[in-house]
Amino acid sequence: MVVVCDVVGKIGELCLETGQPVPADAGALVRCALDSVALCYRRVKTELETLLGRALTRIQLGGGGGQNRLLVQLAADACEVPVLVGPSEISVLGNACVQLIALGVLGSLREARAMIRRSFAPREVAPRQRVPEIAVARFQALASNRETTS
Fold first, then answer.
1. Residue 7: what pLDDT?
2. Helix/strand/coil (H, E, C) string of 83-104?
3. Which domains are present in the chain?
4. Which CA distances in Å does 84 have to 6, 43, 60, 117, 145?
5. What distance in Å separates the CA atoms of residue 61 and residue 95, rounded to the nearest whole number?
6. Percent helix, percent strand, percent coil in the chain, to nearest 5
7. What is the pLDDT of residues 5-18, one digit of tens each?
């Protein structure tokens, strides 16, 4: 069974429902989505800091999202820490490493991680500007409201 979802329509409905401007074109829609993802990263970072009882000093991002330079910069800005971008195919590399460990070629997960770090140079993206507190507060209020009504 194939389920089709009108994501663009759903975003427009949500914007209208919450009193936000509906993105006027494809560029505005993409920017809305990327800003939202970056603010979700910030929210999760804050939750992790609370659980760990300490501040996080950087975020590591692997997979296809790291190929989107705007998303990475928005994440660094929203989280106010550098983002270390790893390999875009980290899932495949992780799978291969698990198989190499099972075959005895690699001795441990630590060894596998070291091999990946040696093979793929990470790229670090520093924050450039702070996200305005009013935008953060609005996002948090909308996210909290969605959680309580879902």
1. 82
2. EEECCCCHHHHHHHHHHHHHCC
3. 7-86+122-149 (3.30.420.40)
4. 33, 18, 5, 12, 31
5. 17
6. 65, 5, 30
7. 788 888 888 889 88
